[in-house]
Amino acid sequence: MEVAANCSLRVKRPLLDPRFEGYKLSLEPLPCYQLELDAAVAEVKLRDDQYTLEHMHAFGMYNYLHCDSWYQDSVYYVDNLGRIMNLTVMLDTALGKPREVFRLPTDLIAYDNRLCASMHFTSSTWVTLSDGTGRLYLIGTGERGNSASEKWEIMFNEELGNPFIIIHSISLLKAEEHSIATLLLRIEKEELDMKGSGFYVSLEWVTINKKSKDKKKYEITKRNILRGKSVPHYAAIEPNGNGLMIVSYKSFTFVQVGQNLEESKDEDMSEKIKEPLYYWQQTEDDLTVTISLPEDCTKEDIQIQFLPDHVNVVLKGHRFLEGNLYSSIDHESSTWIIKENNSLEISLIKKNEGLIWPELVVGDKQGEFIRDSAQCAAIAERLMHLTSDELNPNPDKGKPPCNAQELEECDIFFEESSSLCRFDGSTLKTTHVVNLGSNQYLFSVIVDPKEMPCFCLRHDVDALLWQPHSGNQDDMWEHIATFNALGYVQASKRDKKFFACAPNYSYAALCECLRRVFIYRQPTPMSTVLYNRKEGRQVGQVAKQQVASLETSDPILGFQATNERLFVLTTKNLFLIKVNTEN
């Protein structure tokens, strides 16, 4: 059995700034433009039966604004008339109205059980689309940046079961065979889960292809399902389609399509409930092994061989227990007897008195160790000096205990640490695992649409951006940018809803649920001389923080960042904030 490689993320020290002094609030005005929408955004509120934290993460905090990373400054949203609306910005002072590029065939209002419509820009000419009712569409768009060739046409659509949202998709062309792979997320009811939330998260990896140019019809060729207990922060298919990467609190595993989950659960339970083959106890001088004998087993059916470092037990001609012992025994003094309750009791005399054995036979997991109550009491007595009934029995002796109320929010670690896992597409096994520990996930961004999306993690006080490279097995995740102190700063924003950064890393931005947008720029050289009085040195560059307040009382539903602009979507308006001027 292959074991997943335990990896770590390698930080590039030249990208860190240990002398970063913080952000300076800038009062420079930010140009802000407001567009009124013809129809409201198709927001879907959580139902009464969608009450868990996972529902809130996946659907309640959904970003209704979609950025086309293949074309600069082009954003899309779905309105409540079922229209996909696009705004492409060429000039801020000459903004047009959002235009309709496609209309969903289904009447969304007729479905009570639907989720929000979702889309992903698979390539420069393909879009994957979900109407929120459980139907998947593949749309051929033509060159979207060219109004003459752009035309949205349905190339494939099929009902795929319960409603889902699209997480990611890729387009592959191999030997004239075109295929599209997409990741779909569902939160399913789990009737057997009595202790947990009663729900589990399903990630379905669907592959749709067209085998030759002559055959126009696209069809599903592969459906694999991953199952977990938390909504992934990040999930993306590798550009070559050979694997996928997931960042999540709780692990995901592949389950076979069509496999009865109840049966597999029963099998797991039966394995757990299986009785141990033997029980063993120990004192400082000897070990006692107890084996329940089969019916009609006589003394003649039992063969036991004692060696200084080895034991071999044969019952009725079948080898029952054999292997190297953890330590040496006095094989000549070791004995065995048959007890009245039809059990075999083996006494092994330790060669090294006082040595506590952690296991009987090296590598054997078929037995169960029974700890003597007197031993437990003796161990507790030995450890008594390390414990106390009082919080701080002797405050003068050392430092007082840590007061959790004095901790800031950014100092609090999660009870469960996230992990980054890479799954192989053919074996469906985990090949690489990174334990993220306290490196809190912040956001993801597409820097190069031909590569996997980058993800941003908190490292100490900074926020570090990582670019996955699936082809490089030795260094699969590259540290490409740093946002100084942003990990610490964002922790104080208790009402933050969306987090993003420019694809060229020039700034990071976050917005609250209502009105306010915070922008954090990378350090830039100063035009005037500035001195740090404490250290008595000249400051060469300053990182600016800016705050924009939107003129609306509607909640923010979508948020996207490009190199020059921020796009903010509310129920009835689309706002543009000019952050950078064109180079």
TrEMBL record:
PROSITE patterns, A to Z: CS
Cellular localization per UniProt: Cytoplasm; Nucleus
Primary location group: cytoplasm
Domain CS: 273-361
PANTHER family named among the record's database cross-references: CHRONIC MYELOGENOUS LEUKEMIA TUMOR ANTIGEN 66, NUDC DOMAIN-CONTAINING PROTEIN 1
UniProt keywords, alphabetically: Cytoplasm, Nucleus, Phosphoprotein
Coiled coil spans: none
Organism: Neophocaena asiaeorientalis asiaeorientalis
Pfam family, one: CS
The encoding gene: NUDCD1
Protein name stated in the entry: NudC domain-containing protein 1
Gene Ontology cellular component list: cytoplasm; nucleus
InterPro entries tied to this protein: CS_dom, HSP20-like_chaperone, NUDCD1
